[in-house]
């Protein structure tokens, strides 16, 4: 009977998640707000249809899968490129926010140790909420998306020592040194992550290769099962040693990102991540959004929520400006990351159970964090509106490019944004490859920016524009402008100043391709040739020739033509 009760509750949760997504999408509202509302209605403080104690484990797995997906987007090389913002900007944000909240809590007569814990806990932002809102706004590839992710990663690293400190306070509030605890927790976390990394490097690639060796199973349930095994094993291994579930899943994601199977892994876990993350937001609503209590304490709730979001947003905005980010991005980041973290719920529950804080105070903190989460979509929309006005006021036309790319390196620089470039940007996005686009068409740029494309307005043949887009840090350049004269001029400028930088372009015909080789383009796709080869392949396929043989034939023709072009340009 108990099992049936749990099953019925899961059915209610799933039905609620389906209804919420459909209803809130039609109202053009964030599904995050819908999930929180649905949880409040059906949960512990509403209709009491679903018990949060029985179903919250499902929501925890949503965060685990989210962190694994984040890891998949970050190779070790990209994480190294982000280190300035993860360990610089992120660390300062946690330290300064924690310190200010700590001082405020001392003025409110909190115990010193408890003030440290609560201050650090409230300095963190919600990874689940922020990344979901960024995804809804299609800002994953923009500077806002990169900076937000960097700060969230540092906050996730902070969770490890914070958990240990809380555990010590629960056992003995005066007997152990918090500094020693932080050092021990950090060393333990590093040791665990090193063990996982070594084991992952030795086992993951052989495992995936063994699965993909059989083409009939490479994209089937066996690959999905293997991916789930890696996610859960990574999460369990860190939890076993007292480190957070999410950090283990994140590490596993980075290790998979280093293999050639990262895209298949991403596709395998996508349905689980979306579903479980929705259940996580519903569980938050079930546990914390007590409508009757909020009504009784509405003054305190509003004051605490405004105070928390104001303190965090001001600190984040100032730090972003200190790191030379655009004003528009700084304000967007400040409003987007101003909420409390899902980790605050775990923290408050521990403190209440250990009698370290008054249950009434703990409840105010929980409701404040939940309220701040619910406000995130609205605050983000406000930040987006403000950013548009600020960007319009930029006096120096190169300033948006400089500040918008200050945190990026090893990227693909795309010059021109026609239909081909749009397709290329989708492919790069899908594979998690960073890129920056420059185009001189104002309408095209603004339209693409609204869709989350990291694009800036500028003259692609102007060396100052190219320097502003950090061409010196780029991995390669792709010129897609349809103006052949401008294409040739741009290629010549780049090849003369950056002789080792790969330059790719497409040409209308073989004659133009030869001229581009002379201008310094290293890789050329003749459009007429490619169109002819694609059309020929359809004929060959209709005549019964295998796709493998067709691919071989096309490659032979390409190689022959490219060799001829290079000979002519020499």
UniProtKB/TrEMBL annotation:
Its main location: membrane. Keywords: Antiport, Ion transport, Membrane, Potassium, Potassium transport, Transmembrane, Transmembrane helix, Transport. The chain crosses the membrane at residues 6-25, 32-51, 57-74, 86-108, 114-134, 146-170, 182-204, 224-257, 269-289, 301-325. It is a multi-pass membrane protein. One of its GO terms (cellular component) is membrane. GO terms for biological process: potassium ion transport; proton transmembrane transport. InterPro entries: Cation/H_exchanger_TM, Na+/solute_symporter_sf, NAD(P)-bd_dom_sf, RCK_N. It is found in: Membrane. The keyword Transport applies. GO terms for molecular function: antiporter activity. PANTHER family: K(+) EFFLUX ANTIPORTER 3, CHLOROPLASTIC. This is Potassium transporter. It comes from Candidatus Sneabacter namystus.
